[in-house]
Design goal:
alpha/beta; seven-stranded mixed beta sheet; 8 helices; 15% strand; globular; Nucleotide-diphossugar_trans; Glyco_trans_2-like
């Protein structure tokens, strides 16, 4: 899928995703003909890069693991330097369904950055307990900043227009958790419009999740620290 006047790039940060990434890339090519795929291999210890290249993606490799923020910053610079108009950040484990990409792109008619929201009435994905409460609080605070309802501020499924690509190519935090909360807060404060589109989340298609329930709860606790820092930074 290529819009009549826009070049579209899927950016896929990947760390040790050799088991699932081939099927994910092939599904994207089947569902979205004309869309290019860039895999940023974030210092994987397996053969993620080779598998991704064989499946038809362009591949950039980081020499060591920087985290999602470092991988995405490189991806946005690639998109800017190669003239792409729209990017979509997609996980390499198959949890993000490419059939929702056209809806994300359509949302750019009214915003600079569209979040694919898991808790907005589509699909059965749920988070429970402290993790869900923390995510709700984050959504409430950032919704007030954005002046719109945002239910899933930690979602890794995001769609950016050309203005946002250039913004993130010049500034994108590589610190832990900076790619989620801090990017939203700073983008909103700098006058960019953020909205969400409901999406369905799928189970992993392969590989091992990097977060256990306990780690996920710690992750979101730390997210509040990032939120506080983002709110007080100038």
């Amino acid at each position: 899928m290529r819009t009549p006047s826009n070049r579209v790039l899927i950016i896929m940060p990947a760390w040790n995703e050799a088991e699932a990434i081939s099927a994910v890339i092939k599904e994207i090519h089947a569902e979205l003909p004309g869309v290019d795929v860039l895999v940023v291999d974030d210092g994987s210890g397996d053969n993620t890069a080779a598998v991704a290249g064989a499946a038809g993606a362009s591949v950039l490799r980081l020499p060591y693991n920087l985290g999602v923020g470092g991988a995405m910053r490189l991806g946005y610079r690639y998109a800017r330097d190669n003239g792409y108009d729209i990017t979509i950040q997609v996980d390499a484990d198959g949890q993000h369904d490419p059939r929702f990409v056209p809806e994300l792109i359509a949302g750019l008619e009214h915003a600079d950055l569209i979040i694919g929201a898991r808790f907005a009435g589509v699909g059965a994905y749920q988070a429970r307990g402290p993790r869900r409460w923390a995510m709700g609080m984050l959504g409430m605070v950032i919704s007030r900043l954005a002046r719109t309802k945002l239910t899933d501020t930690t979602s890794g499924l995001r769609c950016s227009n050309r203005k946002m690509i250039e913004y993130f190519a010049d500034w994108y935090p590589v610190e832990y958790l900076g790619d989620t909360i801090e990017t939203l807060v700073r983008a909103i404060r700098d006058g960019h419009t953020v909205r969400q589109v409901p999406v369905e989340m799928r189970p992993r298609q392969g590989g091992v999740p990097s977060h256990s329930p306990l780690k996920a709860t710690v992750y979101l606790g730390r997210a509040f620290v990032i939120l506080l820092l983002a709110l007080i930074r100038r």
